[in-house]
Amino acid sequence: MVGWSRQGDPRHPGSGLCAVLTDGPGGQKRLFAGPNLAGKTLVDCLGGRGEEIAVEADGWVTLPVGGGSCSIWVQKETWLARPQTPSAQR
User: Fold this and answer.
1) Distance from C-alpha of 29 to C-alpha of 25, rounded to nearest angstrom
2) Please, are residues 31 and 60 in contact by the beta-carbon 8 Å criterion?
3) Could you report the per-residue pLDDT of 28-60, keeping only the tens digit for each?
């Protein structure tokens, strides 16, 4: 299992993400998401995970991923505010 984060920055509202991938069993990965994501709620924009995960006040977060899968975690408010295209409305 591997994971990484892009912390984003205040000049780009809604920026920052966390990625977790595994080619084995599912599990969880603890990552430093950074101060820009501290206190934010993350959702898996790929739809593999339905839960919402809160980033801790210190910028750390523990994120799940399904077996043999990947999850890309973004800010919930940013994901909900994205423009809807016909392919995104499935």
Assistant:
1) 12
2) yes
3) 999 999 999 999 999 999 999 999 999 999 999
